[in-house]
What does this fold into?
Amino acid sequence: MKRLIYHHRYFFIPYLFFVLISVLVLLLFSKAQIHIELNKLNTPFFDQFFKRITYLGDGLVYLLLLSILLLYSYRWSIIFTTSVVLSNLAVFIGKHMIFYEAYRPSKYFELYEKYKLHLVQGVSLHSLHSFPSGHTTTAFTLFIMLAFLVRNNFLKFLCFIVALLTGYSRIYLSQHFLVDVLVGSVIGVTSVLITWHLLDGYNQFWFDDSLVSSIRKRRKKDVPVAVSE
It folds into this structure.
């Protein structure tokens, strides 16, 4: 586990800073205060930017990465799929079984705070199931997997930045509070780390195969052998 974290430190070090800063801010201020201050940081450009980048947290993005992983590694496909199942189960339990009455920012401020939020036009706002952020969980599950797969350190750091921006989009669009995004990211990252730890040492003859190599092997078998006269 330590070797994995060190090897991908260009993702984990900035992520650790994000977690520590978020925890510190949450200890010093209420979630409403934090949301108000962040909500003030809006521009027409950011309205459109975050309105679009938030789609990287949709569940359909899982299918795209899974399709790519199947081509090149059954091992990583299984690790990714297991991580997705584990993280989504955790989000479901949090949203619908434990914190099912947690208000989203728009509803929270409507009921408890006299502050008019800046809302982005065209975004359909939800009222309940705020904790944790499912979009953020999806983004961090997805992009930490990509960080594991790419070799370039800058690309690993870029994976963190895109995951963070996707998570922040949920705050910017007033779909979630900072605490929802923080916990969503922890669920995504932890799910991948746990799954990798459990399955990395698992060995079967097909585990390190891939769809591409399977097709190549089948083609070789189908090629007729020339018989010398």
